[in-house]
Amino acid sequence: MADEFRQLPKIAILHSAHLSRSQIYQAGFQDYVMHPFVKEEVLYRIITSIRQSVAAPPAANFSAPEVAHSSQSGLPGSAVPNDTKPLHQTMPRTFTQNPVPRIDQHQVLIEKACVYMQANLAKRLTLALVAKQTGTSRTKLAALFQSRLNTTVFEWLREQRMLRAESLLLQSNLQIQQIAYAVGYDNPANFATCYRQHFQRSPSASRKNRTLAKGFGTTAKANDSEQV
After folding, report:
1. Mean per-residue pLDDT for 174-202?
2. Do 66 and 139 fall into the same domain?
């Protein structure tokens, strides 16, 4: 069992793009994905790596030569134990014969960029940083957002920041200044301007509406209890 696991391809999950491809491959990995990732991308790379290992010569399935401690032939120094099967004989038929699932690589890039930006709304994000974390170029990422989502990267990011801000205004007790910082605005005045342009009302108006709604709900409950 240990020998079979040693034959499986290794895929690295990277949290940053500081390592080069050559460094990743030299470390013994057959492929890598950038975090954040989507499950379709991981599944595609796992199956592809397994098939590449299956297609390789038997000797290439081992990262290092192994010496058998015992063998039926009694000859020491065998490169592979007698009870070890080649990878293509140990893998399920699902991996070796069924078609590799097709994925839309462009859609994967868009989803990775969206996941990364949503997880980092408080940070000062640039197109270069988002593209780097996604594993593509600024030009390609910008073109994909325009063609697939009919918007720019930063228009999409601004909308997500406004939606998060509205959620915090309505559901939290954070001050408006704190909410501005939480969604990536260093200047609360700039945040208020963007919020007003997006929702046609000020952040304080949204907060006031929440307070009024809560007060109405409390009054309604009190009236119901009196009627009972």
Report:
1. 96
2. no
Distances, alpha carbon 57 to alpha carbons 45, 84, 86, 162, in Å? 20, 15, 9, 55
φ, ψ (nearest 5 deg) of residue 123: -90, 160
CATH number at residue 142: 1.10.10.60
49 and 24, same structural domain? yes
CB 32 within 8 A of CB 24: yes
Q: pLDDT tens for residues 205-228?
A: 999 987 666 654 544 444 554 543
Structural domain contains residue 225: no
Does the reported pTM lie above 0.70?
no
Q: What is the torsion angle, in degrees rounded to the nearest 10, for the CA atoms of residue 136, residue 139, residue 143 and residue 146?
A: 110
Same domain, 51 and 26: yes
11 forms bridges with which residues in the sheet?
Answer: 31
Q: Map the chain to HEC letters.
A: CHHHHHHCCCEEEECCCCCCHHHHHHCCCCEEEECCCCHHHHHHHHHHHHHHHHHCCHHHHCCCCCCCCCCCCCCCCCCCCCCCCCHHHHCCHHHHCCCCCCCCHHHHHHHHHHHHHHHCCCCCCCHHHHHHHHCCCHHHHHHHHHHHHCCCHHHHHHHHHHHHHHHHHHHCCCCHHHHHHHCCCCCHHHHHHHHHHHHCCCHHHHHHHHHHHHHHHHHHHHHHHHHC
Q: Is residue 145 part of a domain?
A: yes
Instruction: Examine the fold and report which residue of 96, 122, 156 is the final residue of a domain before the chain moves on.
Output: 96
Domain limits for position 206: 105-217
Domain count, the chain: 2
